[in-house]
Protein 1
Amino acid sequence: MRFVEEFRDPDAAKSVLAAIAHVADEIGATREKPVHIMEICGGHTHAIFRYGLDKLVHGGIEFIHGPGCPVCVLPRSRVDECIELAERPEVIFTTFGDAMRVPGTGKSLMQAKADGADIRMVYSPLDALELARRNPDRQVVFFGLGFETTTPSTAFSIQQAAREGLSNFSVFCNHITVPPPIKALLDDPHMVLDGFVGPGHVSMVIGVHPYDFIARDYGKPLVVSGFEPLDLLQSVLMVLCQIRDGRAEIENQYARVVPEHGNPASLAAVADVYEPRPSFEWRGLGEIDASGLRIRDAYAAFDAETKFGVGYGAAAGRLVVEEPEGAACGAVMTGRCKPTDCPQFGKGCTPEMPLGALMVSSEGACAAYYQYGGARAVEVAE
Ligand code: SF4
């Protein structure tokens, strides 16, 4: 299969691994003094563990798993707000399946559904629109969740609802953007990062220039990467070469998919429907300025927060909820510790009974450790 098999070729992988080892030695990276490379995207975290790349690369390279899984960074308070909406008798609450098991303070959406809330899994916001057309006497709320990759499809659905004059469709908007949390991480004095592997899918929409500040203001290299093993290995090599050469640039390893300036149609729809919120809460990172999107006043009729007075739209303000006791989700999310360092890993927190969101989504670092490290990862934690 073109663009898949050639990016999984074992012989090519061996030669890139050898090149990585050579450059890592040149810059003096060792197990004791490693080069720290953050893969921002949860899809990359999943691929690194799935293909064992963390074990295959030179021992002087340490992957730090970034905050790029939208389910994982959803704070418990937002899950509680979803449940508050979903439990209204007039509401049909629609969501992608991966958000169903994210734990809130008291329960998850899955548990709320078992308790009788009308919660339905959909594959697209267009499915939610169709539900609204077919149920004119109910209020259909779509749980808009995700980074720049999914934001355009929600924007298109809101524009379509406006064209049709649908008065029973709204979006609970939890769309977030990648550059602000990277800036927050770089501003953290405890964070030691030498370079980034940048997200592929997000960059298809926004292009490569929103990352320019990382090289310009912080002197760190970033390479936008694809998701196959050879994509990731080549991106690591490109980051290492920049470090060796004393360069800090934004490079595009995934040029076969990511256009330099992104996708104009998607960017136009997003700009029409959304504007940045002053700040938005992230699990483990707290409130980050301009990191979330809200629905513009012109489309307020389709904004569930305004319509139902919940979340940032609540007159009394939002409740911020702490992480569960003993959970190290925030520390894992910011690369301060590994999933296996969390006292709950494999004990109080497993994929079957997740305590934190990083164990729910397959893109979460804890779920990836558990799935691909299996029993050994649990042993390490003990
Ligand atoms: S093991 Fe569970 S509680 Fe601990 S950091 Fe991971 S998701 Fe959070």
Note: The domain at 76-177+261-313 is CATH 3.40.50.11740 (Rossmann fold).
Protein 2
Amino acid sequence: MKTMTCKQLYGPCDALIHGETPEEMMENSKKHAMEMIAKGDELHIDAMNTIIRNGENGFLFNNEEEYIKIIKLLKKDKKLRESISNLALKEAYKRYQINKIAKEYLKIYKKLLFVPKQP
Ligand SMILES: [Zn+2]
């Protein structure tokens, strides 16, 4: 069993995340973030808000009713749908370029596997 903090996995807090494999660790990190957001934790909500700008490149919602409103709005408004889609795609390309994200994932995997640093 390996343990890392939420911060070591690019989250905002010091909660401990456990897992047997890197995949399980990433999955548990994702679960932790979703649970904290569901509880209304400000640190995790702020971290999410830096990625999703509500109404601009995505939508944030608190319950099923709000989610349904957003879906109906997107169904009616083609311009909004296209704009949200384009901006979300731009954000994804900016944040998750394969060469950038691959290095970050490699760092995490090495920490999890306790691989010594290369010169
Ligand atoms: Zn956390």
Note: The chain has two domains: 1-51, 53-110.
